[in-house]
Design a protein that fits this description.
Length: about 160
């Protein structure tokens, strides 16, 4: 019996590989989720698992302490064994910002997910579009940067000024 593993990678001080039993080492949360499915109606499930924030915070995201609000530029990509992907911003899961209760589900309806891998559970998402089964990779990426400021587009004032000899 081989346990499913997920790889935590990216801008982390402690990248690692985790199994469902490893994820039991963090405080467990239980949530009831209702997904509105277009093909099979509303689905109700109970999920148990640690908060994504807790697991990633322990892996040591590479925030720059000299930059105010540096963590706001970090993105979290979650990939499942079936090829599904979901993208979250760090601010969504950070308790200082949106504090969304995003779980790494280690059980569904009390059935353990040891062999298939954890599931990304976003109780606040109505249709479950970002729900990922069988997570095999989570990447934390702080390389995303907005451009400083784009040059101002010419407005009526600048066009008029350019026309004056």
């Amino acid at each position: 019996m081989t346990l499913a593993e997920l790889a935590l990678t990216g801008d982390l001080a402690k990248p690692c590989r985790l199994t469902v039993p490893d994820l039991l080492g963090w405080p467990q949360h239980r949530v009831r989720v209702a997904f509105e499915c277009a093909t099979s109606g509303t689905q109700h499930h109970w999920f148990t698992g640690p908060l994504l924030y807790d697991v990633l915070a322990d892996a040591g995201p590479g925030f720059d302490p000299a930059r105010r609000k540096d963590r706001l530029r970090f993105l979290v990509a979650v990939i499942g064994t079936d090829g599904h992907h979901a993208l979250l911003s760090w601010a969504e899961i950070d308790p200082d910002f949106a504090d969304a209760p995003v779980l790494l589900g280690v059980s569904i309806d009390d059935a353990p997910l040891d062999l298939t891998g954890p599931q990304l559970v976003l109780p606040q998402d109505r249709c479950g579009g970002r729900h990922i089964s069988g997570i095999n990779a989570i990447r934390v990426d702080g390389a995303y940067r907005c451009r400083e400021s784009a040059p101002a587009a010419p407005g009526p004032e600048s066009v008029a000024a350019a026309a004056v000899p």
